[in-house]
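Researcher: Go.
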Amino acid sequence: PCVTVVVKLEIDGGKGTALREVEGGYEKVAFSLPAVIGANRHLNTPRYRSLKGIMQAKKKTIEVLPATLAAPKLVVEKLTPPPAKKEGKIFKNGAADAAEVARLLRDEAKVI
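Model: Structure:
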C-alpha cells in the first residue's frame, strides 16, 4: 500500500496507522506493512546538528562497501512503438468550410 501526505504515523508489528491531510481536514488510514509512506512537512521536526557532532563526524572514516546487484526481476519481452496517427486536415476558409467539416464529422469520424 501507498499512503501520502502523512502528518502522523504509528507502526505496531505488521500494521500501521497514518493520519493524512486531505482537503478540509484529516483522514485516518490503516495499512499493512511493508508500505510506502509520503511524509508531509509536519510529520517530523528536524534536529539540528550540534558543533560537537559536526566535529566528531569529520573525524570518522567512511567505509566503502562493494555493491552487489541481484539479477533483474523484470524482463522486457516485447517493445512496440505506438500506432501512427492519421494526418490531420486544415481548413483555411473559416465559415465557408463549415459544411465540409460537418460532412467529414458525420461520414468519416461518425461523431454526429
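Model: The helical segments are 51-59, 98-107.
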